[in-house]
Amino acid sequence: MTEITRDVVIIGAGAAGLTAANRLRTAGLSVAVLEARDRVGGRLWTDVIDGAMLELGGQWVSPDQDALKETIAELGLETFDRYREGDSVYVGPDGTASRFTGEMFPVSAETERVIDEITRRLDEMVAEIDPDRPYAHPKAAEWDTISWDAWLRQQTDDDEAVRNLAFATGSAMLTKPTHAFSLLQSLLMAASAGSYSHLVDADFILDKRVVGGLQQVPLLLAERLGDDVFLNQPVRTIEWSDAGVTAIADGMTVRARHAILAVAPVLYNRISFVPPLPRLQHQMHQHLSMGFVIKVHAVYDRPFWREAGLSGTAFSPYELSHEAYDNTNHGDERGTLVGFVSDRNADDLFRLSAAERRERILESLSHYYGPEAKNPVVYYESDWGSEEWTRGAYAASFDLGGLHRYGADLRTPVGPIRFACSDLAGAGYQHVDGAIRMGRLAAADIIEGGRS
């Protein structure tokens, strides 16, 4: 068993942990990053499947994600625009596919009016939310004890309007059924992107990609740390006191003055803390859970939908794949579609055989793009729910009532232990941008503490 001593031990080599480690090193502190997996990146993972480069995890960059954009620029990476020329497709409640351009999809004039009116109301509410302190809003308790679905259904009895308004934060972002989380949690999701309107605007939220894949961010950050990143080292025990921490992994022990736990909160219980974490943390972490989404990659010999004048952007709250986009790689002659199946639909699909699952998903994509969508040359499903060191996607969120009850304590250090990951972020919540922000925050806290 190797024993080393460092100023700070960081558990998790995702964007948050590696950002913190680089900041600490720059400030003159010694670090060790322990990663359970055999790779760095956490929920960022670019891999080659059957000859096709696929971004299995996070991949998009939005205009408001300053921390991520700064990091991309600093690392010398290039970005490119997501393909979006041509018509989008919407499938309505009767199964009819309609082409459209602009932000508003083809619904009746009355449904459009209802969606516009409720969107305006939501934007006003979101403008009052501080994404770092959503629990501080005067109506936090009221908004946190009604489900997102129930609140929307109080506003209107137009079911198509409700489904379309609900799925932006439900299926699409928190990847949980809309009755399972609160209005406040939904408002936080929107506030983290600047507004509800931003969140429902695919051209905003899914703006750019990194040439060669977003996992290059953690890969290059790790490269700078050299031998201070240790893979295949799941941390089993953390012994802590005011004097410091001892992190015991499978093959090594690190003694340090500080620790940063840079993994999703659903993984905290994989570590034995000695002494145990305070009861508040024990309770709080039980009220945080991952959503679940299958990210579907379908590669074709060419981007055939463009020939029909389609952008590749498609969505429907009535389809198995509730949204899909042109995900063709930079400079690639082949065409790639990416689709998403979330929450209950994802559960149900995993009760089927792999062949049945593929057939059902491709059938859903064909409702948007036509029969040619059923015949990809490469097909792959990113199943983060089965990943031992992730256990869901895209991030953890509170159950009904949990955010106003525990939100203020989410980032509170425990002795020498600090917490940092995208799941705890305000701006950039659930995104790489949020992970970088949290990594910076944890590092600054330690650096400033050392100077005081």
Describe this structure as you would to a colleague.
There is one protein chain. With 452 residues, the chain is α/β, with parallel strands linked by helices. The protein folds into 3 domains: 2-41 and 215-277 and 414-451, FAD/NAD(P)-binding domain; 46-65 and 76-84 and 205-211 and 292-386, Alpha-Beta Complex (Polyamine Oxidase, Chain A, domain 2), CATH 3.90.660.10; 108-196, Guanine Nucleotide Dissociation Inhibitor, domain 1 (Orthogonal Bundle). Helices cover 34% and strands 24% of the residues. The strands form 5 sheets. Strands 1, 2, 10, 11, 12, 13, 14 and 22 form an 8-stranded mixed beta sheet that branches. Strands 8-7-17-18-19-16-20 form a 7-stranded mixed beta sheet. Helix 1 packs parallel to helix 17. The longest helix has 20 residues, at 432-451.
Give the tags.
seven-stranded mixed β-sheet; Guanine Nucleotide Dissociation Inhibitor, domain 1; 3 domains; 452 residues; Putrescine oxidase; alpha/beta; single chain; FAD/NAD(P)-binding domain; Flavin_amine_oxidase; Polyamine Oxidase, Chain A, domain 2; Flavin_MAO
